[in-house]
Amino acid sequence: MKISFFAPSYKRPIKSITQTNYDFVKIIVAESESEKYIDNGNSVVVVPDNAQGNFCRIRNYVIDNLFGDNDAIVLMDDDCKGLYRWENQTKRKLNKDDLFDFVEM
Question: Is the pLDDT of residue 13 over 90?
Fold first, then answer.
């Protein structure tokens, strides 16, 4: 199963917390902001400025233009510290493999 992870971002060109935790997530940024994001070490997908805006607008852009041959797309917040699950009464952060397995289910 082919899955792509994206995190829309707006006016936060610092190194993405989400990419620090999950390096396979691509940050979606408007063309006018892309240089600042790239300069700070983010792996970005550049979209036209008019695609940026509220979450619904960028979600629709992703579905219409970036879905490609993916079986699933996951949109995450750009400051996600991690995704967790409870295991034996302990909060455990999902690693890359666990996260892909979860999405595939």
Answer: no
Q: What is the number of alpha carbons within 13 Å of residue 28 lying toward its C-beta?
A: 27
Nearest CA-CA partner of 17 in 40, 45, 34: 40
26-77 residue pLDDT tens: 999 999 999 999 998 888 999 999 888 788 888 899 999 988 888 899 999 9
If DSSP codes are grouped into helix, strand and coil, which group holds residue 99? helix
Q: Which amino acid is at 42?
A: N
The pTM (predicted TM-score) of the whole model is 0.86
Question: What is the CA 85 to chain-centroid distance, rounded?
Answer: 19
User: How far apart, in whole angstroms, are the C-alpha atoms of residue 21 and residue 103?
Assistant: 17
Angle at 82 between CA 68 and CA 54, to 5 degrees: 55
| DSSP symbol at 46 | E
Beta bridge partners of 99: none
CA distance 20 to 35: 19
